[in-house]
Amino acid sequence: MSNRSPWIHQLNNDRKVVPLKEDIETDVAIIGAGIAGISTAFFVLKHTDKKVAMIEKGKFAHGATGHNAGQIASYFERPFHELAEEFGLEKAAKAQVAIETSWQLLDEMYTEAGLSIPISRFMGQAGFTTGDQVLRHLKDNFYRRKACIRTEGFKISNNAPFLDSIPAEYDGLYSLVPHEEVLKDLQTMNREYIATLSYQKGCLNSALFCQEIISHLKKTYPERFALYEHTAISKAVLHEGRAILDAGKHTVVAQRVALCTNGFEGVNIINEGGLAVDTKFHHLVKGMVGYMSAYLEPMNKSAIAVSYFPPNHIDSSDPFDEDPYFYMTRRPYDFPGNDNSNLISVGGPEFPMENRIEYNADLDYPEDAKKRINSFVKSTYDPDPNKKIDYQFTWHGLMGYTPSGVRLVGEEPKNRTLMYNLGCNGVGILPSIYGARRIAAIVSGEKVEPMIFDPKA
To answer: What is the C-alpha separation between 264 and 297, in angstroms, rounded?
Structure first.
């Protein structure tokens, strides 16, 4: 079974791919043409007069951007209360607000590029089955209230067995409702789910989004923007105020370099302008391969995104220690031959990369992952025993988890010629766009306040 993504399926496959064919000089070189790189190009071009060359080893948006779950979420994969305890409540709150306000940056990109591609927004849900799961997320809400930022809506079934164990300090952070109301919000008949959390979410084909933004950049900045695909950067030599990138038969000389990847590109970075930079990103960023499947159903329900935490899921700050939770999105799938259909996308099974081997996007989709997803669908979302589901898409993608659990955005302390906007951490769309705007501010010379995203020396 192949790695077939519904998002890649919607791209224009007839376009011409242009690799680098000569040595070039540019002001800003962006390595990586996923949503992080393309958003970075958008904001750098808008807020500066710099020339931008974006360089991609494969085809744009064909990495994690084209092999994700398509959810837009404004939270961190890591619990908010853990971020507050590590970085301090004020810094954690600033980071949370920065990601939440990135919805406005997404709107800005849509408006200025004149996009008409589908995007859905709604109140997403997360369903819980155990008291431990509920208490952990209530603790996040408690810290949010302390930080004076918006709390998440929380409903708990009034017959949940753990109600007496909820601390009094969490009063006002949840409401007790009939069990049927919880199940209705989660759109399930699986009575194991006894609580739900709601917050703004959305659905977006981020690969198609990238395609349309690139078209906008080419039309708007024809003299300042260039995209080179099938061009791998194997080495970056940093000097003071410039970098030389090894692109095989050719070189790229740039005043600034922005590494906009998931952290697994294997770029060898040599700092001739100072102390050695730790270049083995794949030793710092852990790799997780996520598996997803999708099928079509009639378009008779509205768009939604729901995460389901089953009883065997153990909440942990380290995603590598957890049994999987499952996530489902439902959105209109506008593609010739599939009119008036919703696409139901489900993911959950995740496996760490072993021995830090290079991820191979061409590997077959494991049958075990499909069985686990199908078992979840039949138990929780689509339980009709007489219905056989035809999964038209099965795909997998690589997610990079930074050591801190938050995106790495900013200048390399040992040589500010190099900048980062990297690390998926499971929820990458809004953090990528936030990181892009922050990189543009740095390039333009704006003074940016310290954030928990900053690279550390």
So the answer is: 36
